[in-house]
């Protein structure tokens, strides 16, 4: 009798649709196996031949945390290119490197957690470097380009599966897991949801990651918005991956639920499909899900729904059809094309802020390049390991010749004298001078947290001269003569061992604390002071050493000498991405650190031809007037220095544009936790002051003219055409920008709003016609009175130019929309959250699962305004649905206030009661509601 092989199970049949294959595979998994799939690290199912799977591979601007990779400019720098084709090509290159690295290391995942589409609402956000723009249109355009590059263009199989971060309204690190973003409906729909929606609908997104914070009083990981919005945009296949540790935060820090079983069940039913918690150990999550099932908080169908979404991603990645996967074996790593693309991206990201004619620099110019970042190529938390590096100094050496370029870093040269009269000393260690750098400048990531294979610091009568850099807020670094930074390893000893500050907890930063006639040296990473012991210098809880800081040379003096002997001085200033503004840490000011301001002042005093080159992850406030020129670029990756040098030399005409407003002063900023961009007049959309540099700003080495604006309304769109011409003598790119504004809005609308942009390259004398087709929906706003989008009839200005403030052409169209009718309050009443304006109020969760309510803020009082409420022929009573304790004061325009008192506190914040009172009003009137005391107002109803 002939033995026949077992039939191929349907889930292995590539002729069947993915949905049928997933159904079959689900039916073959045991309940326990399905539960195990809910953790980030999914175990293999050997009996079915299914490999292990892991969600999550960081790839923000190159493959991160997996060793050497091509490092592209930071995300905010990619956005500064305003070049979606370039960004798509970068995404494509990154995905090919992911595939190549996956082929040799199965720890590399194909489900990439990138890009970050959180809007850069507030420039003090520590993670500014990770986002794209303050504008949702630009953010979605760049994010769409990157995700389509990451996905690849095959209609069935994806090269990688991108997950957008971080859903939703996440723009602060201060208390990020316990603070709530109060987001009114208009801001929710017109601002925060929009960047996600347009990117998801473009088709290159596999899923999203909820943020750590709460929105309107409810943690994002149990948000009904996942169901009410996200999953309505493209169907139910999107995978939702939790942020690391966030599922446990629901109980441990947020105290939103009493038990982890309850919290896990709530997150799963809300839409979280993969739990990133407890590292690679899935046992805790598995136990919580099992417990929730046993308690009846979950059903097996709930588990199946989540597993189905994960399997959908795995099938699309070609895991079950390796012989058909078009991306198998096509990965590319550190290719000449990727190196060239990294330089192209860095060049296109440079923004020329001002220029009095000193730039570009002519050949033969004697240049002094100075500043703390002049000879640095900085990495951030989401960088890969550099295989190649180019600092501004190296780039200028290469472009102009070392003999034409002088250098002064501007650090203070210091010695640290102990109370015994000796000095801190870096002992000699054979091979240590090689530092952390290997072949071709590659960085060993192990050295970013300190080493234990080197001898710790000691003391002797002469000691070591350290380079001290103060990065602001009193945080400083100390570097040994061999270039290695002082770092503290796990054994608590100080060693000169790190190539750069880095790591989740930075071990290379210190503070000098005045103490008597000297200073204590505090190690920031451990919170302990430096002590001198017989077995080496270390950090400890007791017996701190009192040091005398002996300044051998001030950084300003070295800068002055270098600047005085040059034709032009280039001051390279900015931030270290691991210090004072990063994940877990917001900035406190827009100003440059005082140390760098002193260096800039010294350079200007010695040489009036001073150029400021800012290399930073976020905007700064500075005085541009005394400067001959100023440029900005985000940390530009491996080719940053060469790119900056080519722009300074005029080999490349700068065409980067600011993706966010640069404010002139801290006083221009709202509170970091004020998410009401409309009410607080935030971002270029609503800001009424004078910015330092406006959104979209960027200069060129040539000039451009705009003419021929033509507008027409046809077929549900506004069609816009105009011509751009290069009227200068240099081939260059221009970024033409199209904005709109409602001329006679009935509610607060943006002062101008980006509708589209185009980056074009033009030779001298060349002209090109640009066309935009803008759907009428782009002119609509969220009508809170009727809880939907509405296009308002009336005139709209179309503004064309080189920035949001540099408008070259202007035209007006009149659009036919819907009339603005009053609120019909007698039939359905008023949802409390549907206010037009508010003062002193916050939005909170009506229940743990759905709905919003309004509560007074920290002051205990708040005011709400509802415009044009139609009371028809009259009312006889008002009813408020409230919880907590206090009073609600209801006042119709022109009428007397009615006070409704909730005298006895309700049992809990979600135990609502109805309080009634007589109330008379007729016709169409504005309505004001005052909230007094710790209560939640959910709804106001009227009887007539």
TrEMBL record:
Fibronectin type III-like domain residues: 734-804
Keywords per UniProt: Hydrolase, Signal
SUPFAM superfamilies attached to this UniProt entry: (Trans)glycosidases, Actin-crosslinking proteins, Beta-D-glucan exohydrolase, C-terminal domain, Galactose-binding domain-like
Keyword Hydrolase on entry: yes
GO-annotated biological processes: arabinan catabolic process; xylan catabolic process
GO molecular function: alpha-L-arabinofuranosidase activity; beta-glucosidase activity; carbohydrate binding; xylan 1,4-beta-xylosidase activity
Xref: CDD domains: beta-trefoil_FSCN_BglX-like (cd23343)
Residue ranges of domain Cellulose binding type IV in the record: 823-944
Top-rank taxon, per record: Bacteria
Pfam families: CBM_6, Fn3-like, Glyco_hydro_3, Glyco_hydro_3_C
Family: Belongs to the glycosyl hydrolase 3 family.
Function, in words: Catalyzes the hydrolysis of a non-reducing terminal alpha-L-arabinopyranosidic linkage in ginsenoside Rb2 (alpha-L-arabinopyranosyl-(1->6)-alpha-D-glucopyranosyl) to release alpha-D-glucopyranosyl (Rd). It is not able to hydrolyze alpha-L-arabinofuranosyl-(1->6)-alpha-D-glucopyranosyl (Rc).
Name of protein: Exo-alpha-(1->6)-L-arabinopyranosidase
Organism annotation: Streptomyces humidus
């Amino acid at each position: 009798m002939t033995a026949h092989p077992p039939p191929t199970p349907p889930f292995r049949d590539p002729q069947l649709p993915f949905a049928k294959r997933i159904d079959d595979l689900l039916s073959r998994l045991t309940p326990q196996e399905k539960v195990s799939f809910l953790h980030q690290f999914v175990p293999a199912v050997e009996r079915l031949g299914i490999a292990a799977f892991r969600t999550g591979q960081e790839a923000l601007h190159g493959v991160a945390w997996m060793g050497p990779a091509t490092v592209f400019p930071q995300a905010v720098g990619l956005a500064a290119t305003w070049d979606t084709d370039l960004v798509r090509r970068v995404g494509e290159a990154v995905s090919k490197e992911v595939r190549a690295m996956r082929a040799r290391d199965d720890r590399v995942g194909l489900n990439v957690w990138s890009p970050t589409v959180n809007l850069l609402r507030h420039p003090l956000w520590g993670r500014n470097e990770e986002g794209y723009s303050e504008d949702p249109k630009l953010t979605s355009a760049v994010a769409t380009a990157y995700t389509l590059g990451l996905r690849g263009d095959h209609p069935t199989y994806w090269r990688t599966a991108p997950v957008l971060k971080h859903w939703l309204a996440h723009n602060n690190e201060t208390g990020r897991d316990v603070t709530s973003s109060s987001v009114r409906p208009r801001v929710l729909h017109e601002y925060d949801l929009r960047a996600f929606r347009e990117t998801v609908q473009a088709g290159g997104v596999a899923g999203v990651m909820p943020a750590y914070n709460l929105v309107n009083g409810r943690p994002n990981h149990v948000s009904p918005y996942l169901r009410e919005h996200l999953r309505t945009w493209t169907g139910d296949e999107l995978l939702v991956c939790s942020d690391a540790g966030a599922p446990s935060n629901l109980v441990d820090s947020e105290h939103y639920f009493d038990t982890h079983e309850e919290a896990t069940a709530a997150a799963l039913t809300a839409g979280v499909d993969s739990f990133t918690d407890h590292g690679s150990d899935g046992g805790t999550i598995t136990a919580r899900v099992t417990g929730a099932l046993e308690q009846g908080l979950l059903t097996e169908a709930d588990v199946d729904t989540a597993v189905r979404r994960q399997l959908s991603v795995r099938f699309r990645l070609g895991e079950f059809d390796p012989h058909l996967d078009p991306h198998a074996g096509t990965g590319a790593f550190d290719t000449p094309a990727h190196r060239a693309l990294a330089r192209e991206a860095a060049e296109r990201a440079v923004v020329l802020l001002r220029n009095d004619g000193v730039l570009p620099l002519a050949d033969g110019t004697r240049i002094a390049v100075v500043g703390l970042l002049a000879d640095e190529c900085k990495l951030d938390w989401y960088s890969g390991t550099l295989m190649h590096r180019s600092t501004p100094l190296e780039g200028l050496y290469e472009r102009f010749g070392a003999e034409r370029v002088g250098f002064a870093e501007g650090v203070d040269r210091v010695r640290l004298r102990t109370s015994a009269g000796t000095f801190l000393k870096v002992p000699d260690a054979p091979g240590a001078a090689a530092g952390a750098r290997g072949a071709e400048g590659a960085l060993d990531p192990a050295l970013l947290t300190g080493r234990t294979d080197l001898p710790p610091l000691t003391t002797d009568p002469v000691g070591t001269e350290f380079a001290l850099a103060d990065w602001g807020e009193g945080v400083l670094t100390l570097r040994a003569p061999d270039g290695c930074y002082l770092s503290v390893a796990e054994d608590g000893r100080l060693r000169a061992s790190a190539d750069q500050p880095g790591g989740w907890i930075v071990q290379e930063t210190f503070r000098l604390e005045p103490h008597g006639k000297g200073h204590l040296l505090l190690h920031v990473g451990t919170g302990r002071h430096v002590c001198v012991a017989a077995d080496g210098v270390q950090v400890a809880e007791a017996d701190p050493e009192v040091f005398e800081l002996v300044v051998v040379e001030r950084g300003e003096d070295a800068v002055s000498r270098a600047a005085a002997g040059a034709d032009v001085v280039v001051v390279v200033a900015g931030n270290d991405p691991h210090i004072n503004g990063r994940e877990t840490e917001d900035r406190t000011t827009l100003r440059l650190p005082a140390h760098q301001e002193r260096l800039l002042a010294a350079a200007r005093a010695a040489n009036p031809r001073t150029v400021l080159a800012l290399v930073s992850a976020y905007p700064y406030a500075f005085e541009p007037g005394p400067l001959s020129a100023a440029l900005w670029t985000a940390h530009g990756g491996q080719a940053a220095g060469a790119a900056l040098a080519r722009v300074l030399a005029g080999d490349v005409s700068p065409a980067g544009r600011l993706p966010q407003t640069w404010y002139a002063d801290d006083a221009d900023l709202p509170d970091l936790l004020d998410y009401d961009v409309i009410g607080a007049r935030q971002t270029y959309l609503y800001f009424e002051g004078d910015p330092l540099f406006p959104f979209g700003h960027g200069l060129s080495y040539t000039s451009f003219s705009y003419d021929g604006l033509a507008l027409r309304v046809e077929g549900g769109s506004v069609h816009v055409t105009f011509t751009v011409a290069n009227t200068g003598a240099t081939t260059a790119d221009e970024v033409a920008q199209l904005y709109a504004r409602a001329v006679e809005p009935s509610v607060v609308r943006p002062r101008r709003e980006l509708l589209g942009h185009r980056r074009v390259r033009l030779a001298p004398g060349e002209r090109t016609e640009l066309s935009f087709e803008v759907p009428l929906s782009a002119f609509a706003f969220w009508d809170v009175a009727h809880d939907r989008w509405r296009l308002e009839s009336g005139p709209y200005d179309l503004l064309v130019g080189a920035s949001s403030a540099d408008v070259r052409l202007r035209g007006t169209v009149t659009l036919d929309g819907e009339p603005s009718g009053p609120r019909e309050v007698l039939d359905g009443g008023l949802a409390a959250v549907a206010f037009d304006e508010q003062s002193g109020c916050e939005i909170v969760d009506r229940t743990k699962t759905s709905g919003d309510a309004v509560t007074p803020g920290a002051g205990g009082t708040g005011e709400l305004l509802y415009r044009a409420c139609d009371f028809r022929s009259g009312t006889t009573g008002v009813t408020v649905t409230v919880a907590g304790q206090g009073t609600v004061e209801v006042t119709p325009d022109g009428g007397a206030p009615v006070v409704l008192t909730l005298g006895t506190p309700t049992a809990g914040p979600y135990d609502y009661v109805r309080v009634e009172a007589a109330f008379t009003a007729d016709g169409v009137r504005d309505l004001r509601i005052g909230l007094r005391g710790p209560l939640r107002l959910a709804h106001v109803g009227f009887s007539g």
